Amino acid sequence: MEYQTQPSNHDDSSGNPMADDDSCEPNPTVLDLTSYQLHDLDSVDFPLSLTELDFTANRLSKLDPRIGHLSNLKKLSLRQNLFDDAGLEPISKWEAISGLEELVLRDNQLKKIPVVSIFKRLLVFDVSYNEILSMNGLSKVANTLKELYVSKNEVTKMEEIDHFHELQILELGSNRLRVMENLQNLTFLQELWLGQNRIRSVNLCGLKFIKKISLQSNRLTTMTGFEECVALEELYLSHNGIVTMKGLSTLVNLHVLDVASNKLTAINDIENLTQLEDLWLNDNQITSLEGIAEAVAGSKAKLTTIYLEHNPCANSPNYATTLRQIFPNIQQVDSQVFG
């Protein structure tokens, strides 16, 4: 799950950084210094009216203490810099900015979760693409959090998240997780991203409101465990070792199902998924197109995209034509798009 920021380069005629959008106003609120390759902020002015600071893609390794006086600050991005644990430590004592709602520390050199307990209204916290070994420290993060990103680290255990009762997005992809756990209190979770881990079985603790789940590139061999996730709209399970499609019949709100690159030999248990629009089955071992109309009966008219390439059945005569006959509203078969 990619956390997006909007890059822009604003400078005055001398090439010096300046406040974004409102720079001609007496009280600018946004300062965007994306991609200036700054090593320090000595030449930068910090109006007390600022509510957003973006230092993405610079060479910063130390915090400028003047940031700690910006009492109106709501969003701070230090993404793609050179901050290590020591360089970030002063932020834990800056009472004046305790109203911060969004803190982005993605793509730095952190080895642990920083102390951010001072921020009592934090909604978004991003420490992805660091060198963090453990989720220890998250228990001190405010329970107001709605989005948590810890992808591309070295985390081995899902822990210290059970107090995030308001959490809607949890991104833990590209870590070293083996077990899904401690999700039972995240009752409002809508998106769970766990791709590229080492998970062998699904344990979603009855997350009935979740809409998107990614478990791509793990070690699953079955699809069981999703039965209670009746609100699920998108399910990504590609690049696992799944042998049989079983356990999906209750997911009647599913729009996207990706089970590409598994070990499937047949299509099963999805005949009553009436909302299915995208079905990815490529790179499996499905031998024949016979019976596919019955297997996808519920979404026969709804389906717009199907991938079946790199299966034995894709070698059938008139393969694409047959699929177009089965699915009257199909718009794409594999890479072939129909007008």
TrEMBL record:
Keyword field: Leucine-rich repeat, Repeat
A Pfam family hit: LRR_4
Signal peptide: none
PROSITE patterns referenced in this protein's UniProt entry, alphabetically: LRR
PANTHER family named among the record's database cross-references: NISCHARIN RELATED, PROTEIN PHOSPHATASE 1 REGULATORY SUBUNIT 7-RELATED
InterPro entries with a match to the protein in the record: Leu-rich_rpt, Leu-rich_rpt_4, Leu-rich_rpt_typical-subtyp, LRR_dom_sf
Keyword Repeat among record annotations: yes
Protein name (Swiss-Prot/TrEMBL): Protein phosphatase 1 regulatory subunit pprA
GO BP annotations listed: defense response; response to other organism
Tagged with keyword Repeat: yes
Region ranges (Disordered): 1-27
